[in-house]
Amino acid sequence: MSEGQPEQLAEGTLISHLLELRTRLMKASLAVVIMFAPCAYFRNDLFTLIATPLIERMPKGASMISTSVIAPFMVPIKLAILTAVVLAMPVILYQLWSFVSPGLYRKEKNFAVPLLISSIVLFYCGVAFAYFLVFPLAFKFLVTVSPVGVQMMTDMSQYLDFATWMFIAFGAAFEIPIATILLLWTGIVTFEAVTKNRGYVLIGISVVAAFITPPDAISMLLMAVPMYLLYEVGILAARFMLKDKLAAQAERAREESTAG
Q1: Is 65 helix (H, G, I), strand (E, B) or coil?
Q2: Which of 89, 95, 123, 198 could form a disulfide with 28 if both were Cys (CB 3.0 to 4.6 A apart)?
Q3: Which of the 8 DSSP states describes residue 78?
């Protein structure tokens, strides 16, 4: 395409789009199946790995329990499926990107690719942060506050549900920079509003962290502080990635204030 000519987007019929979507879904599903095979083989080791932060902090003589006959088999299988999806996530997102990218302009592609890669890395960082830092401190607190005569014997199914929820919550929390950049890029919020309302953002983050994390101040701070820092990182990244767009928004705001 020569310079100065408008960029042409790829076009296709509804049937061709549906066939393309089916192909992408099949490839994504195949990636999950491939990842599931080794995860299923090591399912018990995976569960032990996930449960280690709690097992290591249980009182002497205590252990995890199963209140269901089939839980010792089904819970590790469920964990293997979840792990396979997480490990295959780069392939899944790549297939999604391959499906939607023909409908994007080159400038939009150049903007979206770094965000896509960053979102994957940030989600994994959030999961690792929860496992290596939040879990040990939270479980240590929860074990110490057990009433006298009450021994902690956590059901394995309930523990997996709790761990999954925490991984998703912290993984999503680490996506704040991406969300901030997208909100500014789409024009839903202005840069001025993002920078001037830091106090309200901090309050909102604190409330969210209090609801999501276990009921102790340390866990809440371990979620709230990184969330706010990532919010600031999103603002800083937007200054560089959306420099021209933010300048245009500021110019429009000045024109409107002058006209008013």
Answers
A1: strand
A2: 95
A3: H
Determine phi and psi for 195, rounding to 5 degrees: -80, -30
**What pLDDT sits at residue 140?**
87
Candidates 259, 236, 111; CA nearest to 185 is 111
Cα three-residue angle 165-65-156, rounded to 5 degrees: 20
Non-local (6+) Cβ contacts of 119 within 8 A are 93, 175, 178
Instruction: Tell me the angle at which helices 198-212 and 217-241 cross, rounded to the nearest 10 degrees.
Output: 140
Q: Which residue in this structure is represented by tokens 């409908």?
A: 103
Residue pLDDT, tens place only, 143-200:
888 787 777 889 999 999 999 999 999 999 999 999 998 888 887 888 888 888 889 9
Q: What pTM does this model have?
A: 0.84
Digit-coded pLDDT (tens) for 116-146: 899 999 999 999 999 999 999 888 888 888 7
Q: How far is CA 154 from each of CA 46, 50, 132, 144, rounded to the nearest angstrom?
A: 17, 14, 20, 15
Using alpha carbons, list the distances in angstroms from residue 49 to 4, 42, 43, 126, 234. 57, 10, 10, 17, 33
| Mean pLDDT of the region 21-45 | 95
How distant is the alpha carbon of residue 33 from its chain centre? Answer: 22
